[in-house]
Amino acid sequence: MLLGKKIGMSQIFKNGKVIPVTIIEAGPCVVLDIKKNPLRLVLGFEEIKKAKKIKKTKPPFKYIREFRVQEELIKDIKVGDKINVSFFKEGDKVNISGISKGKGFQGVVKRHGFSGGPKSHGQQDRLRHPGSIGPSYPQRVFKGRKMAGRMGNKRVTVKNLEIVDIDPENNLLALKGSVPGQKGGLLEIRPYFLTRKGVLIKK
Question: How far apart are CA 7 and CA 22, in angstroms?
Fold first, then answer.
């Protein structure tokens, strides 16, 4: 379990092949609290150094998130410890969660991949229109109908991404493939066998 920031995409040459990778600055994260019922790990990422520190309070962080975990994974972790990329190793697979890029209000062709109207035979201005949205009976539009609307800016999880390379000195992870969000966006990094609700999946 780790919080990170998307740096951007690059490529790595390995075993004579070009591997597209996403570079992530992962941690270090500070354990702020360990809650119970259910067991949760509270992590802080990117300490705000310029903020005024008040006595008897925890240092402020830009990002604070909770992770549901299993006791066996954090049995050696205490409040105040720092978690970094050493939690993972090269070859491990992880699940990445983040907020996807917002596209604004988009039509059905871009949002859902509709083919649009006919390109000829009298077609005038219906090229990117959805067409009919309801049957003759019942005379209404069914809930869930794919139509134009706001696209993106939603939580997205990409599963089973392989860690191609690790730079422990700079807290960098190189993951094979792409991850959701824009450059500088916050990412949640979990082992592939741990769901968002902290349920273990059989390895």
Answer: 8
Distance, in Å, from the CA atom of 94 to the CA atom of 160, rounded to the nearest integer, reads: 5
* CA distances (Å), origin 139, targets 72, 132, 136, 143, 146: 56, 12, 6, 13, 17
The span from the CA of 150 to the CA of 107, in Å, is 9
Domain residue extents for the chain: 1-48+58-102+156-203, 105-132+144-151
Q: Which of 2, 57, 44 is nearest to 25 (CA)?
A: 2
Full-model pTM: 0.78
pLDDT in tens, the chain (203 residues): 889 999 999 998 988 889 999 999 987 888 888 888 888 888 888 888 765 555 555 568 888 888 888 877 777 888 888 888 888 888 889 999 999 999 999 999 999 999 888 888 877 788 899 988 988 898 999 999 999 999 999 999 999 999 998 988 888 999 999 999 999 999 999 888 877 766 666 55
The verdict on domain 1-48+58-102+156-203 having CATH code 2.40.30.10 is: yes
Q: Return the residue matching tokens 């962080």.
A: 61
Tokens encoding 177 = 């493939």
